[in-house]
Amino acid sequence: MLWSRLKTFRSILPLLLPFSSFYYENGYFRICIIYLNNDKYSMAIKKTNYSLQTTNWQSHCASLKLIRQQVFIEEQNVPVELEWDGLDEKACHILAQVITAGKKLAIGTARITLNNTEDPVKKAHIGRMAVLAAWRGQGIGSDILHACIDECRKLKVKKIVLNAQVDVIPFYQKAGFEISSKEFLDANIPHKQMTRLLENQT
Q1: What does the DSSP 8-state code read for residue 72?
Q2: Cβ(138)–Cβ(102) under 8 Å?
Q3: Domain 51-197: which CATH number of 3.40.50.720, 3.40.630.30, 3.40.718.10, 3.30.2130.10
Q4: For labeling, which of 55, 93, 139, 160 is most exposed (least CB within 10 Å)?
Q5: Which tens digit of pLDDT belongs to each residue from 127-159?
Q6: Is 188 helix (H, G, I), strand (E, B) or coil?
Q7: Which letter does DSSP use for residue 105 in this model?
Q8: Residue 113: strand pairing partners
Q9: Burial of 17 (0-12, 13-18, 19+ CB in 10 A)
Q10: Domain boundary assignment for the chain
Q11: Spatial distance between the Cα atoms of 122 and 202, rounded to a whole number of angstroms
């Protein structure tokens, strides 16, 4: 059956290639068609259904650890002692999850820590932004970042600070962050500090 579907699919493939991408899923070939609209190309994108929630370390430490273990320690070779810095228990965490095989699977996270100084400008630091490799490219990271910004607003934060890896600086610039430092190394990875002021915070 698979072979017959493949032959049929191959027969129409030359007509579709200039205007589509395709993939095989659940026994079917599926096509993502690009169509012309007002002289601009638009694409119908299949997007994963997932949920975002604000949580704490005590409630979801196993899921949060799993994501960060895979992304930072295994993928990026961040030293264990730097990743687990003792700030998680007092921080606010954003957790992205999908339902697969009837169970919740943690796929992305970020962390918000508040400054503990007497600075009159209330600041927050966003860090530990991570999405598992298999789930990237679907806008999940952007949604997590905006969830962090929304949470900072709820906390009456006036200034958000983060340390961005230099290769993803444009990602943060799209969300309104500006570079505020020279390049530096963190866990042997080039970073720049970025900041964003939040409006209407009294």
Answers
A1: I
A2: no
A3: 3.40.630.30
A4: 139
A5: 999 999 999 999 999 999 999 999 999 999 999
A6: coil
A7: E
A8: 125
A9: exposed
A10: 2-43, 51-197
A11: 10
Residue 160 is predicted with a pLDDT of 97
On the 0-12 / 13-18 / 19+ scale of CB atoms within 10 A, 13 is: middle
Q: How far apart are CA 131 and CA 161, in angstroms?
A: 20
Average pLDDT, the chain: 81
Q: What average pLDDT does range 54-60 have in this prediction? A: 97
Rounded Cα distance between 117 and 128, Å, is 21
User: What is the pLDDT at residue 202?
Assistant: 52
The closest of 138, 152, 141 to 195, measured between CA atoms, is 152
How deeply is 14 buried, as exposed, middle or buried, from its count of CB atoms within 10 A (0-12, 13-18, 19+)? exposed
The span from the CA of 159 to the CA of 195, in Å, is 7
For residue 162, give both structure tokens.
């983060």
pLDDT tens-digit profile of 106-123?
999 999 999 876 666 789
SS3 letters across 38-61: CCEEEECCCCCCCEEEEECHHHHH
Task: Name the one residue in this structure whose structure tokens are 């444009």.
Answer: 170
Query: Which residue has tokens 């320690």?
Result: 73
Nearest to 85 by CA among 128, 50, 42, 133: 128
